[in-house]
């Protein structure tokens, strides 16, 4: 019996401070022994409904309803475009700029604090030009200070200024006159013309570039298409008007950016938005800020749909299903599959999402299909949901290995080539999909697929020596790495198939991932030599959910309470406690973390609540 199971049962009451301290000490100091069920506890799986008896209600921490309300409000807000810009700055495009248009794009900007962005004066003037078109390839001439011993160089500015080596620098004459020939520059080369005066002896720049611009301020123009984005930019000019040139078609999105820290001061586009949930809410400086401002990961879309169904928020659930429908591949070898992610912004010509990453991971398909099945289970076969599910299951069937030691397991997907690795996570995820599909669609064949998959998982992926799941199976055999999710999510699967002793061992194994920083306690994703431990809230609440499923409510409450100091004022939970550019993780508000918090504490019955009773028939 674990130390925590000795704390007095407080199923629907907040743990006392002494209980919290005792439990924390046990979590930090206890050996990695299997957790055990308390004597007299009811069976985990109801023999009639074949659903977990432990996940029928929330975990009963008095503070959690308030936290959950804030978390749910924030989750709903992420269905809409970001509204976090302000402070008086503004930027707009002038005239019509259609999706198919390229060439020059003009606009204007305003500042509420222009003193923070002083004009950098230039020592150069050009004859007869306030600006030069980006496609100009003729002669330019002008004046520099008389007597300066300098040369004038030509640059094209895109993401930064690039010197045009094919243009011979102009030597400034004693009277200050100079002349450049731009004709050697490739006509297809993009960018805005800039000219700089340099000391002929030292090469150091004298004064600012022509045309004059504002210090620490940049204008960025993005052209967004289904396959990605193209960026051109320029230092913001001294006046309010600007012109940029792009060779790329696509939806035009323009930003005014403070170059000191990358803060977006203003943004403008004319796009409608899809029914997709933004994955993160970034602040300046956080990993992903700007680049992933409108990105929706389909895994997050699925989690949000499961939460919406569990909370019976039909309006939100309908929108999320509609968003998934807009992304499901309809033809080719990946018909039925859902891509990794996409932009919340829509192509104005096709009304389909932009910036679609067409890689297809089996684990994501499992979560999406599970979410759609939950939707159909609750609301019926509406909005074409069963067709989406059957098409998705057809793609999944193509990932099943049929030969070799890995026969019966499901491969990782395509990115774009076949991923031959078989991860524990996506295989246990798929067991829940097949089991739920057999119940919702009423087809025994899916129950048979669940049975076959369970046998393959236990034969190939369970590490009997260490009493835990391996990370997966690759071409050379078992992948014995030890990530948190294989233990936490794996324990739910083990309980679901009636392997309760192994489930308790797997859940007990999660203790080695427990990590504390300041007032925050949670779990790290994996432990490797040289890897910085960072609290991972998606995984932390995955453990909380596994504890609820196992009937360990006291531990689940303590897990939720330990992470609570990290909840933001807006109700969101960060993805990780700290940004880590090397690991590419962010401390931004995260749909994945916030959704898992709600699934663990408020609506645990919505997530993986199906289970089997040995000897019982289908429910």
Name its key features.
29% helix, Immunoglobulin-like, elongated, 13 helices, disordered N terminus, alpha+beta, 619 residues, five-stranded antiparallel sheet
What would you say about this model in short?
With 619 residues, this protein is α+β, with helices and mostly antiparallel strands.
Structure description:
This protein has 619 residues and is of the alpha+beta class. Among the domains are: 48-79 and 482-618, no CATH class; 97-116 and 214-269, Sandwich (Immunoglobulin-like), CATH 2.60.40; 122-210, Immunoglobulins (Immunoglobulin-like, Sandwich). It is 29% helix and 22% strand. It contains 13 helices and 31 strands. Strands 3, 12, 13, 15 and 16 form a five-stranded antiparallel β-sheet that branches. Mean pLDDT is 91; it is low at 1-33 and 36-40.
What's the count of strands?
31
Class of secondary structure makeup? alpha+beta
Overall pLDDT, averaged? Answer: 91
Q: Could you tell me how far the N terminus lies from the C terminus, measured between alpha carbons in angstroms?
A: 32 Å
Percent of residues in helical segments?
25-40%
The percent range for strand residues is 15-25%
Radius of gyration: 29 Å
Number of helices: 13
Instruction: State the major sheet.
Output: 5 strands, antiparallel
Which of globular, elongated, flat, extended, rod-shaped describes the shape?
elongated
Low-confidence stretches: 1-33, 36-40
Protein name: Alpha-L-rhamnosidase six-hairpin glycosidase domain-containing protein
Keywords: Signal
Organism: Actinomyces bowdenii
GO biological process, one term: carbohydrate metabolic process
